[in-house]
Amino acid sequence: xxxxxxxxxxxxxxxxxxxxxxxxxxxxxxxxxxxxxxxxxxxxxxxxxxxxxxxxxxxxxxxxxxxxxxxxxxxxxxxxxxxxxxxxxxxxxxxxxxxxxxxxxxxxxxxxxxxxxxxxxxxxxxxxxxxxxxxxxxxxxxxxxxxxxxxxxxxxxxxxxxxxxxxxxxxxxxxxxxxxxxxxxxxxxxxxxxxxxxxxxxxxxxxxxxxxxxxxxxxxxxxxxxxxxxxxxxxxxxxxxxxxxxxxxxxxxxxxxxxxxxxxxxxxxxxxxxxxxxxxxxxxxxxxxxxxxxxxxxxxxxxxxxxxxxxxxxxxxxxxxxxxxxxxxxxxxxxxx
Length: 337
Fold this sequence. Notes:
The protein is an alpha+beta fold. The protein has 3 domains: 3-109, 434 Repressor (Amino-terminal Domain) (Orthogonal Bundle); 117-213, TATA-Binding Protein; 221-336. It contains 8 helices and 16 strands. The strands form 3 sheets. The chain has an 8-stranded antiparallel sheet with strand order 9-10-11-12-13-14-15-16. A hairpin with a 2-residue loop joins strand 11 (260-270) and strand 12. It starts with a helix and ends with a strand.
């Protein structure tokens, strides 16, 4: 049976009777919408009203169903087959209609739902050869690196990628210098100095810029070097006329609090012999034009001298001049070169 032909047949007979869809529906106790579906081939009249419909339209059931008149014809079976056929057609149309919506929804969810990140291990070959770690949002691909830069592609949304990268860098130690916060991985001894997610029509590019070591320490070491002229080398007071020898070593090494380490050794010259006046170790920092030495341990010292816990040195022409001279009984002024 052809549902469209059945619908057209019903519509033609209705119009010949000068009946509206509403009027025909009233006679059959159905809505005008039901009549409209019959005429458009979207459904078939129920078996219980087929004979009534045929009477109203002055025809017979076989004519309505567009089948040949035969004895013992099972109208109900025919109707049932057509209903199954119509139902399958409707399901197919619905699937075709909603498939794009489902696809768009899946793509939208894929782009917007956070899936987290993986810790990937890479070989870092710029100036040093070692393994480093980077948090990479899931489903990233096409990794590229160039000296201190690493980049990836990802089809997911820009905002969710930024959120996942922030989750990763927040697991690292935050260090600050140059009025900027950086992210230090003490295990791999690298610093993430910058990261970004740049959008494209089809994908986003994730980029990391890294530096070997603690970036703020490196920056500070460069600044200290400019002021002192040298670091990790001894500043010395030694001459034939002087009664004492002073060796001060500001080191490039740092402790667990990222404080710069230093040692101070002072000896009294007694002929060919040396007597310890002070052997201490601690930390230092440079503020403006002063180097401040904080003693954390005094391993040896002369008993008649009070060793201060903090000593300030003025930095002048890359020399260190002790401000409060606790060694004035031995040397009028302490100038380390």
